[in-house]
Amino acid sequence: MRSELRAGLGFGRLPFLAIGALLVIFLLLPLLVIVPTSWTSGMLLEFPPRGFSLQWYDRMLADPTWTDPLKVSLKISFFAALLATTVGTAAALGMRRLTLGRGGALVRSLFILPMAIPYVSYALGMYNVFLDLPAGLSETIVPLILAQSLITFPLVYIVVSGALSGVDPRLASAASTLGARWPTVVWRIELPLVRPAILAGGLFAFATCFDEAVLAIFLAPIDQVTIAQQLYRSANEAIAPTLSAVSTSITLLAIVVLGLATLIGRRAGTRNGGTA
Length: 276
Known about the structure:
Blueprint: H1 2-9, H2 13-37, H3 55-62, H4 64-97, H5 103-111, H6 119-130, H7 135-138, H8 142-165, H9 169-177, H10 182-211, H11 214-219, H12 227-237, H13 241-275
């Protein structure tokens, strides 16, 4: 396919390659500045950096100003991703069994609607909703967990639905004719076949929640600040090399999580393709 496309475009592909290269450089340019400045041996955030030192990473790991928000973000992201994975997988399994005709596309669009809503508008709406909760609940991380699980639910739904589309529906029919009820079919046949996709969707949800700041600004309690919030606050006070170290660490974590999720998703697609 690649050779046919290359032969068809000929030299006409060169402008596309040039534009693609420029876009890659544009996207990577912030990292090319942030990462080296986190290694500076100086006391100021400057590019190019002066010398090489890991002192700012040591300060980051030893400073509760950063370690406490990191723990809060990990906790919130884990529970939000767990809830989004559970609900997203259940929705994908349920939609697989529904026959909605032309209305099916509308229902699926509603499931992915949270991805299209601006986060600021969504955060304001969720903030007004959670104002009606009891004070003991509204002042905890529960509202933020629920809000982040709602915006990441579509990611899990899309990934799991895509994996289920590659599962032969005749497997469930055959199990039903042998006397297996639908809970058994789901637990013993469908879920094992799409388990890698569920894990990949959960990792995507975790990475999205960990890096999310808008909802955290509106819904996080005062005494529990996320790492994204702390970055915003520190950037408003002073630009120090510690910010580069924290940003580099978060970026590295996101790359690892997203890379792992992509690898698992590809393996799931290959497995389902072989099964189909």
